[in-house]
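Hi X.,

You mentioned you wanted examples for the new student's onboarding notes, showing what a folding record looks like when two proteins sit in one file. Here is a clean example. The first protein comes first, with its sequence line followed by its structure tokens.
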Amino acid sequence: MTLVCLIFIVLLKGVYSEMCGGCGGEITNPSPFISHVIHPVARQSATLFLFHETLHLFNQLCFTMSDEVGALVFDFGSHSLRAGFAGEDNPKLDIASLVGLIPSTETKPARRIIGQNIFVPRGGMELQPFLKDGLEPAWNTKNHREKIAEVLFEKFKIPAFYVAKNAALTCFANGRHTGLVLDSGAIHTSAIPVYDGLVLTQEIIRSPLAGDFLLQQTQRLIDELNIDLVPYYKVASKEPVNEREPPKWKKRANLPETTTSYENYMVKNLLQDFVASVLQVSDERYDQSQADTFPMVGYEFPNGCNFDLGHERFQLPEALFDPSILLESGGSSMLSMSHIVASSISLCDIDIRPSLYNNVVVVGGTSLITGFTDRLQRDLNMKTPPSMRLKVNFPSTAAERRYSSWIGGSILGSLGTFQQMWISSNEYNELGKGCVDKKCA
């Protein structure tokens, strides 16, 4: 029997074949099931649509697999959706947490698009985020978890289900049952203590200093430099120009009239590439005179405009570690990376603090910025009590750091004892949604 769960959804082979109305992540003629469940403008319905289509794609793959594979693992985040088979090292699917909504015309019905198809410019297509903060962040409430189970069992008729907190799975992926998980993602950075596999929800500390904040600061710098951000899809050709010279490029012909949401998303992708390519966290507190001694790094924008950046590439990410550098009112009151770690641990019982300091696990896309972990180690050393031993751990590869909670789910879903953990449909029908909180700690 093949099963799927969410962060595990467990499904039988072929269980969805009769209700899948499309393939390849795009539906042109939605089935009655989808038309009934999905409304094109509702966020919850957009989530159901994407989830349904993801299950459809994996349902096709299940026919090529042996019965040894038991679970599908889903990790829904505010930036992307990761999904794959339990027991594998990496997810099979990693797509943006967006649904493209194309309005109907006189000749074509309304369509909904997911995956790589959303990058194609289409007239009138709105890009809508289908969730915020993921389906099961550590601070999710009992009601939210029960609602997820209700939808999956009653709408999707899944045979079994299990949901786990991402911080606990991150610890599991790193060979630990106890630790302090620092997860720096798109919307926020969280310090989440985990003790013996249980997330201590009352001691979680969050900060808005994360990926999206960094993109906002980068956008301001680019505006100050008078750089016109032209997304890749608009550029037909370009000519080489000297540094800081006006670009020479030609716009692609016959482009459809795109929406503001599509334009903003493509610009955001460009900013993310700039951040990953240029920015670096300094080893010590930012000092412009010292930063100017480092070699400049060049970056070429899609339209051919190119700039060499010096101290600016250190100044932007410095706010993650020293919010007082921000000029905005109240900026200095936000919590830095080291501050949220130390604050979260200080809220925990004194007996478990040594274990938390000794097992700080760093994950999340924002933590991939060059120099992030080295600076965190330095700043935490200054905040760690002399009686404590600090050890900062982070996965060795970018994929492991980005997919840490999914990998933990993959490990858990492949264990022989997993059948004792999940909630079966019979169990749900007998005990109701109250069993979710009892079985999924």
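Then the second protein repeats the pattern, sequence line and then tokens:
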Amino acid sequence: MSTVSFVQLGTRKRYHSLQLVMAQVCNHYKLFLLHNKLKDFRRVQPCVSPDTGKPSPNQKAQSNELHVLEVNVLGAADPATFPLQNKYHTPEYLRTIPHLRTRTPFNSALLRFRSQSIASLTQFFTEQDYVQTHPPIITSSDCEGAGEVFEVGSAHRGPAGKGDDGTFFRSSKYLTVSSQLHLEALAQSVGKVWTLSPTFRAEKSDTPRHLSEFYMLEAECSFVERMGSIMDLVENMLRHLTTNLYSTQELTRRWEGMMKRPWPRITYTQAIEELNKSGQTFEHPHTWGLGLQAEHERYIANTVGLGSPVFVTSYPKSIKPFYMLPSQSLEIGTSSETVECFDLLVPEVCEIVGGSMREYRLPELISAMQANGMVRSDAGGEEDFGALKWYTELRRWGSVPHGGFGLGFDRLLGYLAGVQNIREIVTFPRWVGRCDC
């Protein structure tokens, strides 16, 4: 029988494990040997503390080790069938056991990192006098107008009555694709609001950048007349986050780009010009009037930003949602061809933030809804605008210039943590064809 056993102990407050030394003098030592290689929960009684413990002979590995007097096995697991063995497991394998993968050091570190990031962002918005809100998850409209929504249903369908189709809400409802419209309503009450809440997209995109359920940080601010003010808010927010976390962790080149270098701001038209003169062959076309694809965004982030985030502004009106304010400056043709919006691109991950000034004038909003086929061409006045009637009333009953943005929180964490696939950032990821646990 071995006289000494060594155990690597993971703790809630440490990113690195602590070595435990168990000798035969330790109570229940023989019982422990029966479970020596188990991944279970153990309660130990130390004879020295981790902070003042005996220096380890291997100083390069760790500075302290813990000599154990007593150990009790609280929850045993069969070492032969336990899914997490003492070897390397691929991310693909760990995704098949999402209920267990946070027990690995890397994934538990991501959980802590996520928690620290939320705390830092909450501090930032509190200092900026923003009100944190909780908009609804079930909504009556598709905010983005793209049709990629999950429709909400009930397992029980009752009999249809007069004016009732038998569904739970008596009309079609959806899982939210964005909280923006509701935030606009709240911002007109308290001025500045933000939320960090789940968002759902029924996109059948099986890529490292897409999920069906993810968290979006969104903010809305009243009495803002310049889009630059919204971009300043985004930049200050992300600099605050990275600076706060920098003091506690060793960070990479991308963190330096977030904190120290200036963030360039170019228009969509200038981005197209950069792509045209690049001399590179892209898989997707890059002509004015088409959306930028991931390969285009990646090129712009790497060449224009040189490691720092890049704002791309003033996209064509035809490829953006109805609620965006038309640009006042002339890009191509007439001033109405572009809208006051921006995307924030970062190297590798591409777009992580999208924002805009909102159309706050009722006649112009109605015209935009008509142009997008959302209401009849003769709609106006007291016309019932269906599920968006409440949104038009925000303009009817007093509105001010305002704008806001949405941040893909999980994409941001993946970028800062150096994780290539967003499915490793989310504890229980859902994407097309997969919804485990």
